[in-house]
Design a protein that fits this description.
Layout (H helix, E strand, L loop, with lengths): L2 H23 L8 H11 L13 H12 L10 E6 L2 H10 L10 E8 L11 H19 L3 E6 L4 H11 L5 E10 L21
Antiparallel strand pairs: 1-2, 2-4, 3-4
The chain binds flavin mononucleotide.
Flavin mononucleotide binds next to β3.
Length: about 200
């Protein structure tokens, strides 16, 4: 066999292996490659609203809070406060008063609040909503990475929800609850939604 033919065969085999590698690393399972694992975690997260009785470890809760506080914020103001609710009776009370929070079976809730004493002044004040939303998404992604389930339940800007939660969780007037994150070990296994839609972006070259 000619040398050039051997080289062609070797290259063809290498190409086949490369294609197999690309295809398999796009599967649902995280790989050893960190970038793949991070993207996969984002793409496979989905809201979980039903949970088992298993409690969360304190170390898991700390990881979730660390993830929240690692979020970007405008001028690095970090205008957030987190309330972790583990008390079963209070979780039930919140679930009864605010059914949208999906706390009926949750092991815990993290209430994400904007701290109005730390916001930017003037027109920048409302960046606290961006900042706390970034923190919330970080917590959702961290929960998914820990194989926990979670769902974001909107509170602000609904004044009725804000007032109810303020009383139930004793939130001071200097803070505004943006959302409640229900968290626990998943008792359901819904497929992630495919939201890719080329109509939702445009590129300016
Ligand atoms: C601002 C906001 C408010 C939401 N409020 C609620 C809520 O009150 N109750 C609920 O069950 N889910 C709530 N969700 C979760 C959405 O319903 C969910 O993210 C959406 O259906 C997409 O599904 P996915 O999270 O599985 O991708 C909220 C999500 C966001 C971002």
């Amino acid at each position: 066999m000619k040398t050039s033919t051997i080289i062609m065969v070797v290259l063809a085999v290498a190409l086949v292996f490369a294609i197999i590698k690309i295809v398999t690393t796009k599967s649902a399972e995280p790989t050893a490659n960190n970038a793949d694992a991070v993207i996969n975690n984002i793409m496979t997260r989905t809201s979980i609203r039903s949970f088992t009785d298993e409690p969360l470890a304190d170390s898991q809760i700390e990881t979730l809070l660390r993830a929240g506080m690692a979020a970007p914020s405008a001028v690095n103001k970090q205008p957030w406060k987190f309330v972790v609710v583990k008390n079963k009776q209070l979780l039930r009370q919140i679930a009864d008063s605010l059914p949208n929070t999906r706390l009926t079976t949750a092991a815990c809730a993290i209430v994400v609040c904007g701290d109005m004493t730390k916001t930017l002044d003037g027109v920048g004040r409302d960046f606290w909503i961006h900042d706390c939303s970034a923190a919330t998404e970080n917590i959702l992604l961290a929960a998914h990475a820990l194989e926990l389930g979670a769902v974001w339940a909107g509170i602000f800007p609904n004044p009725d929800r804000v007032d109810k939660l303020r009383v139930l969780v004793d939130i001071p007037e200097t803070q505004i609850p943006l959302c409640v994150i229900a968290i626990g070990h998943p008792a359901e296994n819904p497929s992630p939604k495919d939201k890719w839609n080329p109509e939702n972006y445009r590129v300016i070259e």
